[in-house]
Design goal:
The protein is 72% helix and 0% strand. By secondary structure, it is mainly alpha-helical. The mean pLDDT is 94.
Length: 187
């Protein structure tokens, strides 16, 4: 990973994605709602770093700009990696198939990195380092709400639980009940 260009959003994403329940929450939203995991992480990063809530118009522009890369590069790599993992390949040595799968996974990660750099280049207003943690949490939740609007999704309880997992990892200083309240989970 040392050949990846450094960026605060990438570093944030690596740390957040490793957090408890984050990968599962992101993949749940990806599978059930068609979310782009990089956009989910981007919404969290914008809020967590003290940036204001993104507008629906701005996010639609960002989504349109990243859609071709996601559909033509990232998704085909993901599909290939999954096929190599899930299918039995008669006549191929399992360790050879596994080696190919690892290389495809590396290419997928590099493509995700490239997408993140693109997202950050399209909209990265200055961070307000003085912005309170409460406002950062509201901005991150707001960004995910704007993303739901852009996708035409009305969040349900399962969505809120996944968002709560993202927010707990993004804002560990908050109690779980505070995060639940911020994302609109019933007590």
């Amino acid at each position: 990973m040392s050949d990846f260009l450094p960026h605060p959003f990438w570093n944030f994403s690596l740390e957040l994605y490793a957090g408890e329940g984050v990968a599962e929450a992101c993949l749940d939203l990806q599978e059930r709602r068609g979310c782009d995991v990089n956009v989910l992480l981007y919404c969290c990063w914008l809020g967590a770093s003290g940036r204001p809530t993104v507008t629906a118009e701005r996010l639609r522009t960002i989504l349109a700009a990243s859609e071709a890369w996601q559909s033509e590069v990232v998704k085909p790599l993901r599909e290939m990696r999954r096929r190599l993992k899930d299918k039995i390949w008669p006549g191929a040595l399992p360790e050879t198939v596994d080696a190919v799968r690892r290389r495809v996974a590396d290419a997928e990660l590099a493509a995700e990195h490239a997408e993140q750099l693109k997202l950050a280049s399209l909209h990265s207003p200055p961070a307000d380092r003085e912005r309170s943690l409460e406002k950062r949490l509201r901005a991150a939740v707001g960004n995910l709400g704007v993303y739901a609007v852009c996708l035409g999704v009305v969040p349900d309880e399962a969505d809120r639980k996944s968002v709560a997992a993202l927010m707990r990892a993004t804002f560990p200083a908050f109690a779980a009940v505070e995060v639940a309240e911020a994302v609109g989970l019933a007590a």
